């Protein structure tokens, strides 16, 4: 009865190129998603020097006077007369 048992591993075909590509692509996608989630959860603080430089041009932009809007010449003036019924 002991001689009837077969303990050899089952025959499994080797994965094809497309199966390997799919497997590793899924792994890379999962790693990318984890990195994105961690980037949202754990924000990286910016250095003080990087914050100081962009703020200077912003203050100069605020100091400028806004340009007056110039009416375009292509538009027709509105009629001021009422419609006759």
Automatic annotation (TrEMBL):
The chain crosses the membrane at residues 24-44. It holds the Pfam family UPF0239. It is a single-pass membrane protein. Residues 48-64 have a biased composition (Basic and acidic residues). Keywords: Membrane, Transmembrane, Transmembrane helix. Residues 48-85 are annotated as: Disordered. Residues 75-85 have a biased composition (Basic residues). Belongs to the UPF0239 family. This is Protein MANBAL. It comes from Galeopterus variegatus. The gene is MANBAL.
């Amino acid at each position: 009865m002991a001689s009837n048992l077969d303990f050899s591993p089952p025959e499994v075909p080797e994965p094809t190129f497309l199966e390997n590509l799919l497997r590793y692509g899924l792994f890379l996608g999962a790693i990318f998603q984890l990195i994105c989630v961690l980037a949202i959860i754990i924000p990286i603080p910016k250095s003080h020097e990087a914050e100081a430089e962009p703020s200077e041009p912003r203050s100069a932009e605020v100091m400028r006077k806004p340009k007056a809007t110039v009416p375009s010449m292509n538009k027709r003036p509105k009629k001021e007369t009422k419609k006759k019924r």
